[in-house]
Amino acid sequence: MNYTILNHIVACPACKKSLEHKGDVYQCVNPECKSSYPVYNHIPVLINPRNNLFEQNDFKIQGDIFFKTYHSRFTRFLKKIQPDITYNNVSKKNYRQIAELLNVERPLRILILGGSVDGEGIHILKEILKVEDTLVETDVSYGPNTTVI
Length: 149
What we know:
Elements: H1 3-7, E1 19-22, E2 25-28, E3 36-40, E4 43-44, H2 73-81, H3 91-102, E5 109-113, H4 122-126, E6 134-138
Parallel strand pairs: 5-6
Antiparallel strand pairs: 1-2, 2-3, 3-4
């Protein structure tokens, strides 16, 4: 991952001050805070260490955190034929409109929450991106698109 772009936009989740990237850790520059955030599997884990909901070590091993992976062939088959309750039949139209609005001014800085995997129609938005644009896809789970946890 190119941390240079990310270094300019991330902030300490605990105190909102700047973070400094040092090897496999992001360190808060605020001497009163001193929070540190590990980089696991090339992905910064910006989980507030004072937050009880998540722990940074939960992400040490790349794998399922919240999403269940189905290993049985039969279960995978059933999941494939079952209607998806998250399907949005207007998402492509919405992404097309967003892409038209965003395509006016450059460079773009886009933050996607829950972006570990591509949702329906997101490819329309991604297709307009140019080299100078920044796309950060965050999630609380590893996925092929996860840039930051």
